């Protein structure tokens, strides 16, 4: 294992910690839409926004250990959907609270309004479905692999519902969100903790 690969594991572990905390403190906006203007909302989405960056860097280390077409498709779907979600997390951190505080602009945040009910809503639905499928396939690929912990594959499968639109009940989203953070962290730690191969001196 190269040192670069080990650093990818550390990046994935860090992304898991930030993601897990962000989803753990995420407020239940379905029960109270006004939470989007609170600091807790901004902090939760800010952590998701920041955590997605090292997570993306670390996914390359997972891909190195998954062989075959299944592993490649799982990596492609997971990577591209998380990369797309960075855009959504940025909006939810910096733009949505400002819009929600404005009575006129706040109407745009209605799920059936001109913003979310149009092409942006379709975009979020597509990347949500892509992540769901990618997480399930990634979990299956890990279960079939001998290089990563089997139960991290189970965590990836358990994390699949977190991005489904329309959202599932809050407890389900919370559990699947924590599963995602743990999937990042456990898989990343497994990659990081692998021993570097010994380099034998050349025989002259």
Account of the protein in words:
The chain is built from six helices and no strands. With 204 residues, the protein is mainly α. Helix 1 (3-24) packs antiparallel against helix 2 (39-63). It is elongated.
Task: Average the pLDDT over all residues and give the rounded result.
Answer: 86
H and E order: HHHHHH
β-strand number: 0
Question: Major sheet, described briefly?
Answer: none
| Overall 3D form | elongated
Proportion of beta-strand residues = under 5%
The proportion of residues forming helix, as a percent range, comes to: 55-70%
Q: What is the helix tally?
A: 6
- Look at the helices and sheets and give the structural class: mainly alpha
Q: Give the uncertain stretches in residue-range form.
A: 195-204
Radius of gyration: 19 Å
Note the gap between the termini: 25 Å
What keyword list fits this structure?
204 residues, 6 helices, 69% helix, disordered C terminus, mainly alpha
Provide a concise account of the structure shown.
The chain is mostly helical. The protein contains six helices and no strands.
């Amino acid at each position: 294992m190269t040192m670069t690969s080990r650093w990818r594991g550390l990046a994935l572990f860090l992304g898991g910690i930030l993601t897990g905390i962000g989803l753990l403190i995420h407020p239940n906006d379905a029960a109270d839409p006004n939470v989007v203007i609170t600091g807790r909302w901004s902090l939760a989405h800010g952590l998701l926004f920041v955590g997605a960056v090292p997570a993306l860097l670390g996914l390359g280390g997972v891909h190195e250990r998954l062989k075959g077409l299944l592993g490649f498709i799982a990596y492609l779907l997971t990577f591209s959907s998380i990369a797309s979600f960075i855009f959504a997390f940025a909006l939810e951190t910096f733009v949505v609270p400002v819009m929600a505080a404005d009575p006129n602009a706040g109407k745009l945040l209605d799920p059936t309004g001109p913003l979310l009910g149009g092409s942006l809503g379709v975009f979020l639905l597509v990347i949500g479905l892509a992540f769901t499928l990618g997480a399930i396939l990634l979990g299956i690929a890990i279960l079939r692999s001998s290089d990563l912990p089997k139960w991290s594959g189970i965590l990836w499968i358990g994390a699949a519902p977190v991005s489904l639109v329309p959202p599932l009940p809050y407890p389900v989203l919370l559990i699947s969100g924590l599963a995602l953070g743990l999937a990042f962290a456990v898989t990343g730690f497994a990659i990081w903790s692998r021993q570097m191969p010994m380099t034998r001196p050349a025989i002259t």
